[in-house]
Structures are given as C-alpha cells and as structure tokens.
C-alpha cells in the first residue's frame, strides 16, 4: 500500500512538472511572437511616414536634422522688430555696428529715420572702441544722424532726440552702467535705477496710435484668464511668470534672403501712426535676470528714483531671442570698451555665455489696465 501511494505521488509530480514545462514553453513562444509583431509594426510605421513625407523631407541647406515644414528640428527664423516706416532711436550704441547693420538687408532702413546715440563723448567713444570711427564716418555719409553724450535717463536734455521728434522704435541693446560695482546687490539696484530713469525719460517721446500686434490678455477680477487674442509660444522665456504677460509667436522671415520692402524715398522725418515701443535686449543669465526687467517695467515704484516725477508703467508686448546673425556686421562691445587681448570678438561676449540674448518689447500701458 505504501509503495502504491509513493508511485502515485511520483506520477502526479511528473505530470505536474511536464505541464509546467509546457506552459513555460508556450509563454516563451508567445513572447517571441509579440516582439516580432511589435518590430514589424514599427518598420511598417516608418515606411508609411517616409512615403507620406515624400522626397522633399530630407535635410535642407546641408544641415542634418533640419527639415522643411513644421517640425521640432527646424530653427525659427529671426524676429525682425523694425520696419522701414519706423522712426528709430538707438541708445548706448558703443561701436555703432548695430546701426550700420540696420541699413543693410534684410532691414534696409532709410537713414533719415534713424538717430544713433552713445553715452560717452566722441573722444571717449573713439578711444574705447577702435572700430567706431569708421562706422560713424560711414553712417554720416549715408545720412544717419549720430549723437554723442546722450544719457538714456535724461533724453529731454538732447535736442536732437526730443525737438519735435517722436519715435516708434527705441532700441537699447545690452544696457549696463559699467560702474564696476563688485557688490552684486548694489550692482543690480544701480542698473534697475538706470532702467527706471530710461523708462520715465523715453515715455513722452514715443509715437501714439494702435499697437502693431495684439496686446497680451490679462486675467479678469475672478482670476480666470480671458481668451487670448494672439497666438502664444516661446515657453522657454525665463521671465514669463509675470501675471498677464506672455510671449507671442515670433514674427520673422521664412527665408534669410528675403528683404523688407524699401520705404518711400521721401527725405523728411515721418513718424508712423502706431504705438511707439521700447526694445531692450539682455542676457538670460545672472546677474541680468536679477534685474527683473518685465516686472520693473510693469510694476515700478510710483516715483522715478532721483526725481519727484511719476514713473510710467509699461506692458510687455512680446519677447524673442536676439540673433546677432540677423544683423550683418554687428559686433557686440561691452560698456567698458574694447580691451586688446582681453575682449572677445565674433559676439562671443553674448553668445558664449550660459544665457541667450533676449529682446523684450514694451509699450506704454493704457490707463485702465
């Protein structure tokens, strides 16, 4: 009896073992079939996508990964914020290479509509920036007005800037007091005061009229955002946390060879009927992000520092990456000037940093905002 029981147990164990082995083999086969089907599906999907894209979906201009049409790998065209109808005031121009670039394609701005200025005297400017002399000579020959000793925080003191003139674009690229202040907090505060003085000084010189693009929508009183009227993009903007302010889709050219239309050949200074805007370009890295530029413009102190005058408010219309390559011959220079053997050329001062150059465009806030 004992032997029979043991034999049955052995038989049951053997049967169970064989069944388990069979199940394992079936599972392994099913897994292989599943993997094969998945691989086949991927291959078929790639073939369908390739057939749908057609022969034009390859790299363009010799750049791998940059495809025609809408795609993540495609580089955005540069934003061109100035057109030939604008009256343009340029501040803190250093070597005047940016001004010179505005006369060339794709900008083609009429010289008589431009006033280029710099803070230093002519003698100091030419000493600090060796390439400025030739640029200034060329600009004056072409009909561009150039002024030295112009304080962006006291524009009313310069007759060439404010004598019966209104500006639809005021450009202040990479502003900095250049005081060499080592203490970061004091340095930030000094530059913020400089910007506030500029915002106050330039406000009465801006042209009036509708904005050239829709204003960003603010939140209503219940905290619900109103439906946007303009398409939004550029979520990479580090300063976009400002309530009621958002970036707008960059407006640029689809083709680098495309040039702006030439302005009428009239030689008279003619401001357009549109809301004047202020364009300030900074790097998106420390210490510049500590200046809190969008907040400084939108929610400033009630009185301008160093004065008893009211401080105007501005609305951030848009922000976009500043691309030096869009400005033929542009060469960035620091406020302290060009130091042979120390200063960097080829725009490395702004392109070789952690942050990227970014332009913020502001318009005067309407009173009911």
From TrEMBL:
Residues 89-334 form the 25S rRNA (uridine-N(3))-methyltransferase BMT5-like domain. One of its GO terms (biological process) is rRNA base methylation. InterPro entries: BMT5-like (IPR019446). Residues 67-77 have a biased composition (Basic and acidic residues). One of its GO terms (cellular component) is cytoplasm. Residues 219-230 have a biased composition (Basic residues). Pfam families: BMT5-like. Residues 18-79, 207-247 are annotated as: Disordered. GO terms for molecular function: rRNA (uridine-N3-)-methyltransferase activity. It comes from the Eukaryota. PANTHER family: FERREDOXIN-FOLD ANTICODON-BINDING DOMAIN-CONTAINING PROTEIN 1 (PTHR11538:SF26), PHENYLALANYL-TRNA SYNTHETASE (PTHR11538). This is 25S rRNA (uridine-N(3))-methyltransferase BMT5-like domain-containing protein. It comes from Cryptococcus wingfieldii CBS 7118.
């Amino acid at each position: 009896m004992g032997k029979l029981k043991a034999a049955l147990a052995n038989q049951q164990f053997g049967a169970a073992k064989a069944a388990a082995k069979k199940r394992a083999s079936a599972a392994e086969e099913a897994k292989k079939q599943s993997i094969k089907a998945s691989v086949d599906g991927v291959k078929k999907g790639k073939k369908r996508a390739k057939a749908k894209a057609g022969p034009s979906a390859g790299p363009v201009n010799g750049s791998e990964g940059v495809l025609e049409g809408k795609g993540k790998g495609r580089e955005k065209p540069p934003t061109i914020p100035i057109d030939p109808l604008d009256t343009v005031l340029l501040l803190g121009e250093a070597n005047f290479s940016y001004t010179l670039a505005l006369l060339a394609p794709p900008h083609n701005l009429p010289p008589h509509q431009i006033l280029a200025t710099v803070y230093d005297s002519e003698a100091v400017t030419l000493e600090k920036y060796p390439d400025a002399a030739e640029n200034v000579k060329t600009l004056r020959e072409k009909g561009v007005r150039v002024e030295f000793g112009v304080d962006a925080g006291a524009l009313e003191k310069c007759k060439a800037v404010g004598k019966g003139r209104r500006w639809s674009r005021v450009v202040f690229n990479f502003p900095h007091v250049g005081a060499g202040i080592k203490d970061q907090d004091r340095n930030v505060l000094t530059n913020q005061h400089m910007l506030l003085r500029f915002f106050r000084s330039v406000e009465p010189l801006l042209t009036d009229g509708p904005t050239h693009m829709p204003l960003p929508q603010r939140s209503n009183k219940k905290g619900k955002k109103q439906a946007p009227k303009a398409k939004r993009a550029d979520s990479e903007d580090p300063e976009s946390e400002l309530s009621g302010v958002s970036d707008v889709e960059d407006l640029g050219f689809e083709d680098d060879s495309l040039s702006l239309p030439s302005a009428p050949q009239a030689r008279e200074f003619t401001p357009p009927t549109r809301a004047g805007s202020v364009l300030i370009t900074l790097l998106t890295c420390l210490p510049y992000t500590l200046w809190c530029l969008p907040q400084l413009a939108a929610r400033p102190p009630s009185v301008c520092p160093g004065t008893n005058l009211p401080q105007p408010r501005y609305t951030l219309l848009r922000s976009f990456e500043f691309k030096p390559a869009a400005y033929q011959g542009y060469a960035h220079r620091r406020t302290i000037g060009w130091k042979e053997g120390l200063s960097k050329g080829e725009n490395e001062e702004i392109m070789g940093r952690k942050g990227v150059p970014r332009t913020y465009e502001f318009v005067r806030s309407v009173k009911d905002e």
